[in-house]
Predict the 3D structure of the following.
Amino acid sequence: MNAQFTASEPETETTIAVVGGGLAGLSMAACLGTAGIRTTVIDTEGEPDDRPFFEVDDNRTTALIQNSLSFLSACGVWEGCKEHSTPLEVMRIVNLPRGLMRKPSETDFRSEEVGAGAFGYNVPNILLRRSLCKRLEELECVDHRYLSKVTQLDNKGPKAVIKLENGDRITAELVVAADGAGSPTRQMAGIKTTSWDYPQTAITCYIEHSKPHDCISTETHYPAGPFVLVPMHSQDGSLKRSSIVWVEESNRAKRLLSGPREEFIEALEQKLGDRLGTVELFGSQGGFPLSSMIADSFHAPRLALIAEAAHRLPPIAAQGLNLSLRDVAELADQLISAVSSGRDAGSADVLRAYDKSRRFDVVTRMAAADSFNRFASNNSVVLHSIRDLGLGFLRQIGPARRVLMKVGMDSPTGTPNLMTGKPIPHIQS
C-alpha cells in the first residue's frame, strides 16, 4: 500500500519504528534502545497498571527458556521479573491408558541431565510486559507511544512513512511489524500468508492447590489435546500455584468458558484428578482458538516481520514467545551491525539476511508443532500405542532423551549472538 501524506502533518524521524506493543515488539525496542538506536514504539495498549497480575484480563504465562532469559537480561528486563518467576526443572509427559494400556505412563525430562539448573522460568505475561515498559521508560532513545494505531504505511520511498490515527506521521529507515497474527502492517505491505485452523481452543487459567508442584511442568495427553500444568509460586514462596493451558475441542471449550463457573471447576477437577490435591481456581479464565500461519516472506521494502506477524503455531513445548524472541535477537543483531557501520538499517541486504537466517528455524518448529498436535490429539489406539512406545524408548535411552532436550532448547541453526549471554553492544553517537 503506497499511501499519500500531506506535508502539514506532524512528523517524527526515527531510525526504527516498531509497530506493536506485545512482548516481542517491546523486547525489540528494549534491545535496540539498549544499543542506543533511536526507536519509536506504536502500542495500541495503554500503560500497564499495578493491579495484582491475577486481576488482569490476560491470564497467560510464558515459559522462557535459558536463551530467552539471557537475551532479556542483556536488555535490562529480566531483573524486574525474577521474583515473580518459577523455575522449570522437570518436564513430565503423561500418556493416559488406552487400548491394552492399564495405567498411565510418565516420562520425565530433567534439566540436570543437560547441565542446567532449570530449563527456564515461568512468568505471567502481564508482569513481563510491565518490566519491558519500565525498561523503555529508562531508555532516552526510545519513544513509547501508548494508545496509538497505524492507519497507513508507505514503504516505497527512501524512508518508510507510517501515519497514526491521531494524524501524526513517523519516518523511519525500517518498520518492524510486531502487531500479531492478523498484522494490519503486514496486510498494508501486501505480504501474503499461508494459514490453517485447528478444531481446538486453548483455555488458560490459574489454580492454587494443596500439594506442591515441585517445579514439575506436567503435560497430559487427551484425545482433544494436551492439558498442561506450568509451575508458579505463591506470594509466600510456596510451590502451590500453577497456570494451565488446557487444549479442548472448540465447541466444548466455548461451553465451558461461557457457562457457570461451577461447571468449569468441575471439568477442571476431572482433568486434574488428585495430582495436586484440593484445587481452587483464582483469577479469570480465558481462551483462544488454535491456528498456524506463516508469512510468504518475512520482509518487504523497508519492512521486517517478527513474531506472530511472521508466524503462529499451537502452544506446544513453550515454542511461541521463545521462537519470537529468536526473531527479535537475530533482527536486532543485523540492525545493530548495520547502524554501527553507517549502513541503512532498512536496506534490502539486511532484510534478506534476516529472512534467510530465520526461515529454517521457523519452518521446522512449525512442522514439529503441527505434527505433534495432530499425532497426540486423536482417538487412535494405534497412534496412542506408537506414542507410548516412543516415550518408553526415551525413558530408557538417556542419550536420546538428552539430545531431544537440547533440540528443544535451541535453534537448529544455532543460538543467535544476542542470546549467548554477551552484553548488547552500544553504538557511539
About this structure: DSSP finds ten helices and 19 strands in the chain. The mean pLDDT is 87.
